Structures are given as structure tokens and as C-alpha cells.
């Protein structure tokens, strides 16, 4: 039995230091489940976080959507390489050729090529997802399907609509029936009225005087397939155990789970590759199958599997610094439980040049890159009006000999890269897994 006393101490200490009001951690190691908690669900109504507290898990939901898709593939109701229009005949994109070529596999691997971060509506109507998809003919096509991986929330909305069309029922009902119920995930929900009557965490903004409750819900109905699941750390451990092969053949079998965790698209940074749709990485020779989520910089989560070691760790938090807390928890587990201590590396850097200066459009925000290679996040007015928390400036540095970029303050690994067009001109900033198109050159 693993002794996680030191991990509990780290969790308590770092949550307080980082101003994360509450967090829940689940660890699966040597066949045993461990749940650690700290803090409170809300600073306004402080109730202790427990293993049953519900958190919004954000984009880890994409792997649940993908599990439902692969269930349908196993049963011959979907084909990974079939065109989306086979299931949604009226589907349109701004680029007609791209719409005709787009496949289910493109969507699962974030290689659809159309703008991936789009505005959210405020509807809970059954038809909200279909209505959102009907507006995809206004999305810019950044590159042809299959040409480049760029993290794509909109693609998972589309997968959710495919599930609806094939199953003949709303996305949430289909996924609950196919995935949640067979796995015994009885503390996982999509709708706020289901969450409201159960112990749950609320999101917080962090101000100079400390964390403050954000009086807002996360995502609305059209966004459920990309990030809408609310879950407990105990349910996340059930989900992890299934994907590690420890709990049967439903909703998908072992061969399908392995297929989902295999590399389908090499990436390089910030991950080594993309599965279906797991984000793949490694540390000290240990292969990692990961995801995580961010709901408006208010609730952040991490989810990491090491399949060959039968290991999983998940961290659920209720403020923006929860991302850093999740990284600390994951790193502690990898080092102390798996012996995967990262080697100290310092990349060789080079000075920035004016050719990288400019504005790069990611859809819901732009990266404003200055002559020092600091990327400033500028949220679109709709997100500002909705109270979405911005991100701090990101000082970047160029890696010697290429267009890769690293964090200037911690140049241990590349976090993104600039991409060039056929003429050799800088055309995209690929950062946070997304290809943001250059819309303005401000170097002159």
C-alpha cells in the first residue's frame, strides 16, 4: 500500500500557497485507489471538499465523447474514415471541399482544419447542439483536413452531433447510456439542475485580496461534447480504471482502448502526439496518456494515465492556479510512485527578430506578440462581457536552430512553434496546441 502522506502535505501546502480554495486528487496505483482532498468548495459557503464533491472537469469530457464514438465504431454504426456528411448530409463548412473531405478521424485527432475555439450560446434547448453546427459554414478554414493538428473544441461539438444523429437521441442521454451507466459513474452529470442538489465546487477568480466566487455556470448545452461533464474524483478513478483495462469490456473492448491510446498524429509540442483523442507525452521513459480541462479559468482539472504501469492520477480544482497544482501533484506521483524523475534540461536560446511580431487569431482570443516575444492574451469582447478570466502574459523565447518557442523563465522544453507558409513567411503561432493564424504584422 502506497504511503501518500507526503502527497497530502504537498496538496495542503501548495493549494494554500497558490490560492486554490479546494481540490480533490485521485490516485490509482498497485491496484488500489486513493482519494486526497483539501480545502473548501466555496469561500462564500465553506464546505469541505470530499471524494464525492462534484467539479466541472472541462475538456477531459472529450475523451468520454470519444469513448462513445468508439463504442459505435465497434458496433459497426460508425466508421472512423467515413466522411462526416455520411451521417450529417446537410453539414456545411465555409470551404466546401473541406466539408466534403472531413472524416470522423479528423475530428477525433484535432485535424479538421477549421477554427476550433468558437463562441458559446446560452441555450439549454434540446436542439442547441444542432443549431450550433448549422452555423459552421461561417468558420474560417485555416488548413485542409488532415494537414495539421490544432486543438479543436468545435470539432467535438460536431462529434456530439454525429452521436445524436446515429443514436437518435440527445448527446447527453446517449453518452450516459453508453459510457457513464456501464462504468457505474453515478456521480457524473451534464445538467446544472442535476448538480445543484448535490455537493459541488464553484469556480473562483483570484484577486489581490484572495479567491472570490465567480457567480456563473460553465458551459451551455451546445458545448457539452467538448467539456460539459461534471464529475467527482471517485467517478474519475472509475473512468481511469476502465481505460487502464481493469474493469471489463464495456463500453469498448481492450483493442479499442489501445487504439485510442496509440499515436495517430505526431505533434512534437506541447505533446508528443495525439491519440483518439488522448494527448500523449512521456516522462523519464514512462509513456503518458493525458487530458485535462479548463472551464473559464475557474475550474481546472488534470487526468493522466501510465498504461504500462497500471497508474492514474487526476486532480480537480476550483480556481485558475489549479493548473499549476495539478502539475505539481502529477510530477510528485510520477517521481515518487513510478520513479520517473525528469532530467534537468536547459534549451539553447536565440534572440527574437521582428519577423515574429504580430497578432495571431485563435478565435476567442488573439495572441499579441511583441518584439521581446511576449505573448499577450486578448480575449474577445463577448468573453470579457461574460466575465471569463483572462490569462497572464506569456514571455516566450526562441529555441536555437528552429522556430520552436519555450517559456523564457523556464526553458526546459518547447511549448509551441511558429509555422511558416509556402513562401517562408511566418503564418501561424502554434501555442497551447492551437494554430493561431497571423492576422496582422505589427513589426513595421
UniProtKB/TrEMBL annotation:
Species of origin: Microtetraspora fusca
Residue spans crossing the bilayer: none
Record's keyword terms, sorted: Hydrolase
InterPro entries given in the database record: Beta-lactam-related, Beta-lactam/transpept-like, Diverse_Enzym_Activities
Molecular function per GO: hydrolase activity
Cross-referenced PANTHER family: BETA-LACTAMASE FAMILY PROTEIN (AFU_ORTHOLOGUE AFUA_5G07500), BETA-LACTAMASE-RELATED
Domain Beta-lactamase-related as annotated: residue spans: 9-322
Classification via Pfam families: Beta-lactamase (PF00144)
EC number: 3.-.-.-
The protein, known as: Serine hydrolase domain-containing protein
